[in-house]
Write a structure and sequence with these properties.
By secondary structure, this protein is of the alpha/beta class. The protein is built from 8 helices and 7 strands; from the N terminus they run H-E-H-E-H-E-H-E-H-E-H-H-E-H-E.
Amino acid sequence: MRQHVNPLSTFFQEVRELPKPDDLFENSDLPICIDIGCAKGKFLMDYAFLDSKNNYLGLDIRQKMIDRAENERVERCLNNLRFLFCNVNVSLPPWIKSLKNGQLGKVLIQFPDPWFKKRHNKRRVLQAPILDVLASKMNSGAEFFIQSDVLDVMNSMIDVLDLNKYFDPSSSKKQKLIKSNPYNISTERELYALQNGLHIYKALYIRNSFGL
């Protein structure tokens, strides 16, 4: 079951100051991979365990999930990984702007809350302003990976990315879709979708050289 949290409520509109990379990671100079809407963080823990050449940051708007993920991270001694609670559209931009140019190596948005009703679309996590901020700290060739088991949500994310100057638009949505997960690690929602025969839509965008 999806546990929806309204990101537009007064509580979640409060800007939270996030710790800087120097306070989060042992080696803060490493490229950073951000997983937006990381939930329990299982995917990111497995990813960080296999790759010590990057730092990993999991973000979610649900405090309890972040607390559990952070406790498990500590137990597993994953020092290149941290989990933080925040509303990314409110609190992440100042943190991103503090990064070194090109330090953001990868951004993932996997199975975000769908917000099916049209009037609730503004609650969806991928909005044009936050995408601009994220892309501004990505080098040419950096990856932006999205996936969902809801076609309307996937099309919405593709529309936002295709209109962004930092990523080359596709001539059709189908051309952006890829068949397999490029990281060979599945989120819990992905495993659930596969077990229940749900179709999963995936797309991998590459940062262009605009503005570099």
